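Inputs:
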Amino acid sequence: MTALPASLSQTRSARFLDRYSIAQAMREQHGRGESHHTTAIPDAVIFAETTEEVSEIVRLCAENGVPVIAFGAGTSLEGHLTAVRGGVSIDLSRMSNIKRISAEDLDCTVEAGVTREQLNTHLRDMGLFFPIDPGANASLGGMAATRASGTNAVRYGTMRENVLGLTLVLPTGQIIRTGGRARKSSAGYDLTRLFVGSEGTLGIITEVTLRLYGIPETISAALCSFQSVEQAVAAAIQVVQLGIPVARMELMDRGLIQAINSYSNMTLKIEDTLAFEFHGSPAGVQEQVEMVAALVEENGGRDFEWANAPEDRNRLWKARHNAFYAVVSQRENAKGWSSDVCVPVSQLSGCILRTRELLAGCSVPAAILGHVGDGNYHVVFAVDPANHAELDEVAAINKAMVRYAISVGGTSTGEHGVGTGKIAYLREEHGDAVDLMVAIKNAIDPTGIMNPGKVLPG
Amino acid sequence: MTALPASLSQTRSARFLDRYSIAQAMREQHGRGESHHTTAIPDAVIFAETTEEVSEIVRLCAENGVPVIAFGAGTSLEGHLTAVRGGVSIDLSRMSNIKRISAEDLDCTVEAGVTREQLNTHLRDMGLFFPIDPGANASLGGMAATRASGTNAVRYGTMRENVLGLTLVLPTGQIIRTGGRARKSSAGYDLTRLFVGSEGTLGIITEVTLRLYGIPETISAALCSFQSVEQAVAAAIQVVQLGIPVARMELMDRGLIQAINSYSNMTLKIEDTLAFEFHGSPAGVQEQVEMVAALVEENGGRDFEWANAPEDRNRLWKARHNAFYAVVSQRENAKGWSSDVCVPVSQLSGCILRTRELLAGCSVPAAILGHVGDGNYHVVFAVDPANHAELDEVAAINKAMVRYAISVGGTSTGEHGVGTGKIAYLREEHGDAVDLMVAIKNAIDPTGIMNPGKVLPG
């Protein structure tokens, strides 16, 4: 542990009092996400309550060259929170005020620590919702920082499309606002999109202005079974190519269904499965359902099972959201290793086939699941973090999967972000454009205090 | 005129031969867009045919500190093309190859000089289209550079949402590729979005990868009349707030209708008018039409006139697209001054009302038109560019309109860009975030050769 500068310790007694911690357990909890990545603990944790406090902490850290890592809900998957050079973890979970909602303009402004479930609970009575849903009950600041998406992205887009503006604390402590409330603007560089997905390496997001949507008049969900993953993927691709505006279209392979049944105490049929959700007017949903049913049948799918009651639907999606935990729970004391790639839809079949070949001899439990409507899928492994041979084995499979995805025009991560886990692939994917990313990083954070060791190589 | 470095002149005889011009007329044509802004002519015009040629020219210019201005179709409206410090205009119009279309993945890659009409003509037989439509037959590189949008944005988004990746020539001459073909990615900083809307000040876009869409099964268009602009706007706002997925919803005030009738030889009813286009399945369009008709009627609208035959629809939208020229043609030897703002939809009525008050005493022909579904509208003035009193009068109206839009949470430009015309408002809109834009500009283009005098103040 590095000694923290005196000014930070003084801060403790003055402004932050009971919101400053150097307790080991607290620091450990803040030095990891939900995945297998090794914990690297920060030197201290401070719970900030306002943008101005974040600014003050960052300014003190900047003056003393102390690294700063923003912490939201702790649900990231690629090592984003590991304090590889120590420093201060700024916990934003107490910044949980919903500051403004406009039903007229279908937008809102929330503090970074507000979680997506908190926001949606708040919105429900107004007939509104925020669709981006990465599964975990992540903070909206964290979701913006990692450019998260999830099950609804095929219809509603990702955080890239749904963040209208940000309040940011820059590495100097300066507070700026980006974007605005207009639906579109050509006024200057798109700083909002630059910070969405920058993973805390350029500044800290303290407030987010988001697009909202009216809760659809009709919502309908269904599961259907296929004899192979290939058939399920073929059906999904045709749905995308015909432009049918499904809200969700999720692939779960039979291994995953088994894990979900056991973890969530369900009795889903143990087959390769597509789960759909349809949003729209009654007639619109009916039309979507008929088109999808025809495509499913053409591809050998069967047994459409409906979950139209809200409680059935919620149970289904909750089980899907718990897929990560379901896989991990198959093995005692295991940690999850979740990797995601995203490819052009025309390459999805080949890519998943290749991944299944890679998984064929894998010695640890693993499952494929994915937001196949976007060409995005995940592999979750349940690993023993102390078993180096096992970690090497999974790393090799991951590497082969990622490199294959890049080779067919895809990306090393569709929605989890780079963190520490995908840095090795950044140059393979983006070539010399990485130098431009580094130049921007150096211009904005010349001393490199913002979440060091993440996103960029070297 | 600055003397061009010898190396550039040598280039002329060597590589570019008949594609290098210092003729006055050619230079004048490249030193202006379509609007009132004063022409400032470049020292030379070079027609580039490949990304590598652009790179070579930029490298020569960089070595000699010569400004570089990219030129597409010359349809920009805020002085983007004026060579305020001289230099070389790189004309990209010969880079007009459509390099790749994937019907399966609904995407394509085109060279920067391909125009939107060229692309859509090419796509038609494949049942595909690219929806972004700013009116003018702009180049797709230029549309990306200015973050253009237009009539279809309410449903399909803007260039921000529809550019998947770019090939760029940086100020050093280095060629990089950003983004990719996956529908979403969390792999690193969003350089694509940083360059979309950067107006040639960070680099030159030479290729664009775009999202495509299937041509809707049913397309239907309609006009309806209102007794006041306020009524028309009220109806439009309700359509947005109910989330009805209209493809186009355009406001044209009665003055504009008069100008259009005269310019395009049409007989539209001279009333404040909303023009709609609906896309979808037959049932989906029917449903949208019924909902919109009810809202129109509730707000005092009447006389729905349909234009369902493709030729009628094309005539209608062509007339709408010619609105700018229609207003300008009302006066001999006039130039057009087109300003646009965009505000949260809840502020649109008040904003347009305020604009109409400002226009009440205006001494030159003027009309209001707008993509009201986005909260975006334009005022077009027909000015005598030699009459300074008149220019001052219009400048004052423009200033008051823009400042009002910013004061209610809007933006100084929804889709035209900053160019030279909106620089004065950038800090009012974005505050200290402008300093961050300047820092990024300085990091990427430290010698300031890329389209100097645009976007950023100072």
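The first helix of chain B runs from residue 6 to 16. Flag for discussion at group meeting.
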